[in-house]
Write a structure and sequence with these properties.
It contains one helix and two strands, in the order E-E-H. It has 60 residues and is mainly beta. The protein has a domain at 1-31. Strands 1-2 form a two-stranded antiparallel sheet. Strand 1 (13-18) and strand 2 (21-26) form a beta hairpin.
């Protein structure tokens, strides 16, 4: 753990199996729903997006 720079026992780790090896890395900060909506005040106004004319065989 010291070699990875992990000194907090609550540190999240990323484990990955590659071939016959287990790769252990510090996990990147994972976005939570709380982080995603941080600062959201509840005012949402949907808007339409003009994607242009159909190209190919799209049907709507």
């Amino acid at each position: 753990m010291k070699a990875l720079g992990i000194d907090d026992l609550d540190q999240k780790l990323k484990l990955e199996v590659v071939g016959c090896k287990l790769i252990v890395e510090k996990a990147e900060d994972v976005m939570t729903i709380e982080t995603l909506f941080e600062g959201y005040n509840g005012n949402y106004k949907p808007s339409q997006i003009d994607w242009g004319e159909p190209v190919g065989r799209e049907e709507w």
